[in-house]
Amino acid sequence: MGEFELIRHYFAAASCARGGEGVALGIGDDCALLELPVGEQLAVSTDTLVEAVHFPASADPCLLGQRALGVSLSDLAAMGATPIGFTLALTLPRAEPAWLEAFARGLDRMAQQCGARLIGGDTTRGPLSLTLSVFGRVPAGQALTRAGARVGDLLCVGGCLGEGAGALELVLGRRQAVAEVAEPLLARYWSPQPQLALGQALLGKATAALDISDGLLADCGHIAAASGVALSVEQARLPISAALLELLGEQGARRCALGGGDDYLLAFTLPPPQLAGLQAAGWPVQVVGRVEAGQGVRLLDEQGRSIAAPAQGYQHFGAAGV
Ligand code: ADP
Ligand code: MG
């Protein structure tokens, strides 16, 4: 199968490539053309996933397609943006119909769920890797950045932490668990649900936000640095699911909640008066700490004393990296 036939068959023919709101021209020309409503800005983000670095070599292609797009769209969620479309640059060792069909199916499923259209890409031969760029729209000047946290704000997260990192233990076969424990965790890993609706609900309310991809403490460090404030995290308030607790015990679960990657939940800072309204409207907003004067991130025990944090989030080129 040639390159053009492959693109046509698996990608241009997918339901998510059919165009829609904001897509004036999709796959097939030299560029796609997007339309933005007046008064909105384009939010753009790119992520690359490399086989054996970001996902296991034997990964189920359907789950991989789903996960790759979910992870990328999470960056739009973090800015409060609404997805318009995405491009897919796919490097493949060989054109294997069963793999491509399943991958496109998983991608299509996540795209339909999130209202993102496939608008273009690139297809090349080489070691398996995926680069997705996502494009969204956000009211001008209102995007949630990392830079607006203010002293006195609450530090909040959008759900139970550490499940992605906990699930990785199962994905890599380092641990086994009964179905009631394994299934919810694996679902969080393979089908991360970008918190797009929550991000949009936080527009005009949260002062800073990001999506947790490298662990709560490491990512909170980005908000602290960009906003010129300190963040304190209260260990006793970390939301941890029963499944994660069952899999790893209290210590292990806490470690994943603080330092594990792959959560793809939002972390954000909120002026205290905003909390009750968001919670009453049913948004999953959990307070885990607050914004203080100073710099960096502190972890506090029940008595409010600073305690040492467990291992940091993953860094490709960090001190312990390559
Ligand atoms: P060009 O040579 O102009 O860069 P290509 O021949 O690479 O274009 O691609 C032809 C069309 O197919 C373009 O519209 C491109 O965006 C799209 N395309 C290529 N690969 C993919 C892919 N993996 N998924 C979706 N669209 C793709
Ligand atoms: Mg061209």
Explain what the structure shows.
- This protein is an alpha+beta fold and 322 residues long.
- It has 2 domains: 137 residues, PurM-like, N-terminal domain (60s Ribosomal Protein L30, Chain: A, 2-Layer Sandwich), CATH 3.30.1330; 154 residues, PurM-like C-terminal domain (Phosphoribosyl-aminoimidazole Synthetase, Chain A, domain 2).
- The strands form 3 sheets. Strands 8-10-7-11-9-12-13 form a 7-stranded mixed beta sheet. The chain has a 4-stranded mixed beta sheet with strand order 3-6-4-5. A two-stranded antiparallel ribbon has the order 1-2.
- The radius of gyration is 20 Å and the shape is globular.
- 45% of the residues are buried.
- The C terminus is likely disordered.
- Bound molecules: adenosine-5'-diphosphate and magnesium ion.
- Adenosine-5'-diphosphate (ADP) binds next to helix 1, strand 4 and strand 5.
- The site of adenosine-5'-diphosphate has 13 residues, from helix 1, strand 4 and strand 5.
Key words describing this protein structure:
4-stranded mixed sheet, binds magnesium ion, binds adenosine-5'-diphosphate, disordered C terminus, alpha+beta, 60s Ribosomal Protein L30, Chain: A, 322 residues, Phosphoribosyl-aminoimidazole Synthetase, Chain A, domain 2, 34% helix
List the helices and strands and how they pair.
Blueprint: H1 3-12, E1 23-25, E2 33-34, E3 40-50, H2 61-79, E4 82-92, H3 97-114, E5 117-125, E6 129-139, E7 154-157, H4 163-171, H5 179-190, H6 196-201, E8 208-211, H7 216-227, E9 230-234, H8 242-259, E10 266-270, H9 275-280, E11 286-292, E12 296-300, E13 306-307
Parallel strand pairs: 4-5, 9-12
Antiparallel strand pairs: 1-2, 3-6, 4-6, 7-10, 7-11, 8-10, 9-11, 12-13
The structure holds adenosine-5'-diphosphate (ADP) and magnesium ion.
